[in-house]
Amino acid sequence: MTALWIANVHVTDEEAYSRYAKIATVAIADHGGVFLARGGRHVQLEGRDRPRNVVARFPSLEVAEACYRSPAYQEALSHAIGASERDLVIVEEVPPAAE
């Protein structure tokens, strides 16, 4: 089953975070990740509001986790640490309903 990588981010250092985004984009694509949402408009209804929200779909939960743990993504993450406040979760999607 496919899985969604959902990140809620408050960027505190735009320059460093842009380095993260450049490297992370390649790492995510290399693992079959496809962006569904990337910092667009949003409405915060509950919880902590973080202005940057990112959703990417991966072929599976295992592939999404492997992406996170990959050397390329860890390199990207080194630029995000200290440059952002982030929450990240990977959630398996429900299968499509049979018609």
Order of helices and strands: EHEEHHE
* Major sheet size, sense and barrel closure: 4 strands, antiparallel
- CATH architectural label: 2-Layer Sandwich
Main sheet: strand order: 2-3-1-4
Q: What's the shape?
A: globular
Please give the CATH class: Alpha Beta
Mean pLDDT: 95
Explain this structure to me?
With 99 residues, the chain is α+β, with helices and mostly antiparallel strands. It has one domain (3-42, 50-92): Alpha-Beta Plaits (2-Layer Sandwich). It is built from 3 helices and 4 strands. Strands 2-3-1-4 form a 4-stranded antiparallel sheet. The chain is globular. The mean pLDDT is 95. Pfam families: DUF1330.
Question: Which helices and strands, and how do they pair?
Answer:
Elements: E1 3-11, H1 14-30, E2 34-38, E3 52-58, H2 61-69, H3 71-80, E4 84-92
Antiparallel strand pairs: 1-3, 1-4, 2-3
Helix pairs in contact: 1-3
How do you describe this structure in short?
The protein has 99 residues and is an alpha+beta fold. The chain is 36% helix and 30% strand. It has helices at 14-30, 61-69, 71-80, and strands at residues 3-11, 34-38, 52-58, 84-92.
